[in-house]
Amino acid sequence: MIKFENVSKAYEENNVVKNLSFEVKKGEICVLIGPSGCGKSTTLKMINRLVEPTEGAVRIDGKKVRDFKPEILRRRIGYVIQNIGLFPHLTVKENISVVPKLLKWDKNRIDQRVSELMDLMGMQESQFLKKHPSELSGGQAQRVGVARALAANPDIVLMDEPFGALDPITKSSLQNEILRLQKKVQKTIVFVTHDIDEAVKLADRIAVMNEGSLVAYDRPESILNNKENEFIKKFVGFDRALKKLTRMYVEDFIKPYKSVKISDSSELIKREMENEIFVWVVDDNGNFKGWLNNDDSIDFTEHIESFIVKDIENFQVSPDCSLKDALSVMMSENVVTLPVVDNGKLIGEIRLSDIVGNEKNN
Ligand SMILES: Nc1ncnc2c1ncn2[C@@H]1O[C@H](COP(=O)(O)OP(=O)(O)OP(=O)(O)O)[C@@H](O)[C@H]1O
């Protein structure tokens, strides 16, 4: 889909990108990573011709980008950058409409597309469309930036450190948003970052760059397992095992569980709990309601409802949650087992020992 063929860029004597050759497949997220100044942004900008190569060529579907008409490139390639991406004097709606207007779409088509995009980004139209960028939080502004890049339905999206300036929680939720969105819209995305955790989380393939050259181009698992290359080893850091958990998901580690129903008799529950430290509690529809600790506090002559620990808001994980996030919930809640809940329903449990041993449920 996107192919770099022996691409180099020099500014006078300074070779900032050196003989790059690699290919990004259709529908994949390629993350360019490397230290500051290694040539990531320059590489990205050679795809949409904000920068022209000194040597070599970038091709999209076999055709050199320098042979595309500018308006075709604009339609095919969305572009998201950090902070300064939005026009401050334009409203959210006007910002999202910039490329469709350049492409001379009619008003109805633009309105409809803006609505779709707001919906896709989980933003309420009535609340946001008339606002200016200065009235948005960092996370909201970046969502609008992504919506704007997707406006003309490009098949390629370039993202240059889009979440670099955000706090860790907003950053993580936008990364999840990108992964969710990508499942739906399947764009070819080239993403620049210098955050290895972000790269491991998002990438189908990671391009590691150093001083203008490509050091490695591989799947995140292989980059994390690379122990030969000193530069990669240093870049990945000491916590490579933890980083691998970012790419593993709870759904592959779900184990059977023991549960009782709120409507069960106290006698039955007492029997069920005999050799357990605790049991999960569900209602008659299988919805997760909490758990019962097998200690002296339970009086089985009474109905068990009042003994259920119902503090379940933060005490659960969904099947699509990464093992790293599951581990983080376990640590913050100080437990070794968590209920796996899908749309309110208890579907299994996940245990610390399975995470540590990477023991799948197959
Ligand atoms: N227009 C330009 N004129 C001269 N030198 C430039 C120009 N643009 C970039 N450079 C130089 O090219 C090198 C690579 O820059 P680039 O922005 O691609 O790096 P980067 O890896 O994206 O860095 P960062 O992570 O800090 O954003 C740098 O040394 C930079 O100073």
From TrEMBL:
Arranged from A to Z, the UniProt key words for this protein are: ATP-binding, CBS domain, Hydrolase, Nucleotide-binding, Repeat, Transport
Which part of the chain is the ABC transporter domain?
A: 2-236
UniProt GO BP: glycine betaine transport
Q: Which residues form the CBS domain?
A: 308-362
Any Pfam family: CBS
Q: Which Gene Ontology terms of cellular component type are present?
A: membrane
Q: What is its EC number?
A: 3.6.3.31
Q: Which InterPro entries match?
A: AAA+_ATPase, ABC_transporter-like_ATP-bd, ABC_transporter-like_CS, CBS_dom, CBS_dom_sf, Gly-betaine_transp_ATP-bd, P-loop_NTPase
Q: What class of enzyme is it?
A: hydrolase
Q: Name one GO molecular function term.
A: ATP hydrolysis activity
NCBIfam families tied to this protein: proV
Q: Return the similarity comment.
A: Belongs to the ABC transporter superfamily.
Q: What is this protein called?
A: Glycine betaine/L-proline ABC transporter, ATPase subunit
User: What species is given as this protein's source?
Assistant: Flexistipes sinusarabici (strain ATCC 49648 / DSM 4947 / MAS 10)
